[in-house]
C-alpha cells in the first residue's frame, strides 16, 4: 500500500512538477496541459474513482448474524459456530471492511477482511486475517451479475499441510437481507470439497 501511494505521488510530481496536486493545477490548468499530461490525469482519475463495481459492495453493508459450518476434511461432519459481522464501506466507498466476532472450536474468534475492486486490474481483491493465524488469506475474482455472486480464487497458509494451499470462494447474494460465503479446497488427491459456508442474515 505504501509503495503504491509513493508511486502515485511520484507520478503526479513528475507530470505536474509540484509538491501538491492543488498547487500544480493552479500552475498548470487542465487547458494548458499537453495531450500526454491530460491522458495521465484522466487515467489517475479513472483509477481512483468508485464505479458500478464498487456499488456491488453496498449489498453487504450492515450488521449481520452469522451461522458458520466448516469441514476439516471431506466427508466428515461439519463443525458449527455462531458469530456476528459488521460490514461498512471505508475510504470513500472504495473498500468494504468486515469485522467478525464469534467462536471456533470453543475459542474466541476475531477476524477482519477488506474487499475492493481494482479499476486497473479489473478484478475484486480480498484479504482476510484473524486471531487464529499469522498469515494473510488473499484472493481475487469477478462478479457474476446473472448469478448474483462474486467468485474468487486465492492462496492461504495451511497448518494441516504446513504450506500454501489453493482455495476458491463464492459470495452469493440471496436477497437484500441474506448472503452466503462459501470456500472450497482440494484434498491430497486433487478432489475439491467444501471447506466452509457462512450464512449471513441481516439483523
Describe the structure.
The chain has 2 domains: 2-48, no CATH class; 54-202, Lipocalin (Beta Barrel). 20% of the residues lie in helices and 50% in strands. The chain contains 4 helices and 10 strands, in the order ααααββββββββββ. It has helices at residues 2-16, 21-27, 35-48, 52-55; strands spanning 62-70, 79-90, 95-104, 107-118, 123-130, 137-144, 149-158, 163-175, 178-186, 192-202. The chain has a 10-stranded antiparallel beta barrel with strand order 1-2-3-4-5-6-7-8-9-10. Helix 1 (2-16) packs antiparallel against helix 3 (35-48). The longest helix is centred in the first third of the chain and has 15 residues, at 2-16. The chain starts with a helix and ends with a strand. The model is unreliable at 14-26 (pLDDT under 50).
Amino acid at each position: 500500500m505504501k509503495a503504491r501511494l509513493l508511486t502515485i505521488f511520484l507520478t503526479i510530481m513528475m507530470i505536474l512538477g509540484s509538491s501538491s496536486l492543488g498547487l500544480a493545477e493552479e500552475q498548470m490548468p487542465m487547458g494548458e496541459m499537453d495531450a500526454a499530461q491530460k491522458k495521465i490525469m484522466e487515467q489517475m482519475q479513472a483509477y481512483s474513482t468508485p464505479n458500478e463495481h464498487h456499488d456491488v459492495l453496498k449489498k453487504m453493508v450492515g450488521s449481520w448474524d452469522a451461522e458458520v459450518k466448516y469441514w476439516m476434511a471431506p466427508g466428515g461432519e461439519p463443525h458449527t459456530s455462531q458469530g456476528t459481522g459488521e460490514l461498512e464501506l471505508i475510504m470513500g466507498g472504495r473498500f468494504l471492511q468486515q469485522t467478525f466476532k464469534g467462536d471456533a472450536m470453543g475459542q474466541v474468534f476475531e477476524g477482519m477482511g477488506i474487499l475492493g475492486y481494482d479499476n486497473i486490474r479489473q478484478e475484486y481483491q480480498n484479504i482476510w486475517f484473524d486471531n487464529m493465524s499469522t498469515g494473510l488469506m488473499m484472493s481475487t475474482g469477478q462478479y457474476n451479475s446473472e448469478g448474483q455472486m462474486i467468485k474468487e480464487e486465492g492462496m492461504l497458509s495451511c497448518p494441516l499441510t504446513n504450506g500454501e494451499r489453493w482455495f476458491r470462494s463464492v459470495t452469493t447474494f440471496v436477497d437484500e437481507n441474506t448472503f452466503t460465503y462459501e470456500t472450497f479446497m482440494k484434498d491430497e488427491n486433487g478432489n475439491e470439497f467444501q471447506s466452509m459456508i457462512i450464512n449471513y442474515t441481516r439483523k
